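ok so heres the complex, four chains, lmk if somethin looks off
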Amino acid sequence: MDTKRTAATEDELGKWETQLRKGGLGLAVLATLWTGRLYGLEMLRRLEADAGLSVPEGTIYPLLNRLKSEGFVTSEWVEADAGHPRKYYSLTERGRVRVREMAGAWKGFARGLERLLAPLEGDPR
Amino acid sequence: MDTKRTAATEDELGKWETQLRKGGLGLAVLATLWTGRLYGLEMLRRLEADAGLSVPEGTIYPLLNRLKSEGFVTSEWVEADAGHPRKYYSLTERGRVRVREMAGAWKGFARGLERLLAPLEGDPR
DNA sequence: CAGCATACATAGATATGCAAGGTATTATGC
DNA sequence: GCATAATACCTTGCATATCTATGTATGCTG
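and the predicted structre for the whole thing:
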């Protein structure tokens, strides 16, 4: 029963983490493009390596399509000498402006939450 | 047209901020209860004052019910000598454990995102 | 040419925040 | 005593983004 409860708790925490990411991932993806173009799976690897965010493929492609239809990124197919053709995404000018706005909103929210979490720090209770 | 575009952009940013809060608000609410019990509207005021998070009532009551049915908080009606009866919410033991887990997950996510945002800092581009 | 890895894509289910509107109780002015 | 306002809590319906699972196509390799 302990194992059951633990498993359930972990599941719930997992679902919650899913919710936590909403919105945040859009910013994360745009941010990876700040320094230059990347293709889909390359972004996933960078998100994992740089930020510890493991994002499934089924999440990033719809997200990229949304960002594209909103005019924040553009895409172009690039055929390599060897290997499969890849779809590279780049930030548009509008996208650059947007990342800054989003980053600002993120920082405001994060600072507020940090303040609320301060009382927990080092409290053994 | 400029005004139109600006307005539309702000609307979109607003919708995005809604997404950004998902999950985060649950943590924020539980965190306000760390130091002691509070009633609904009191929480809203504290969230606004301490963290700059303005949360509408339509958000917090369903949220509190969820947290209660999941066993993270308990509630009790308290009748004051003067004034209206208030429903006070407190953290359960399970709730305390949970806040810690959530705070840990939040920090991991926030650190990762900060790393991704680092290249934007002071980049005039 | 069969199997495997790479790369992009889609559909349905689920969860959450919000706006709008509602009920009940207490305090206040006249 | 009665109307009005303020406090406090609650419910419904909708919009939105992500995940799971699955599908398609291409190129490499033995």
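quick notes: Residues 1-5 of chain B have pLDDT under 50 and may be disordered. thats all i got rn
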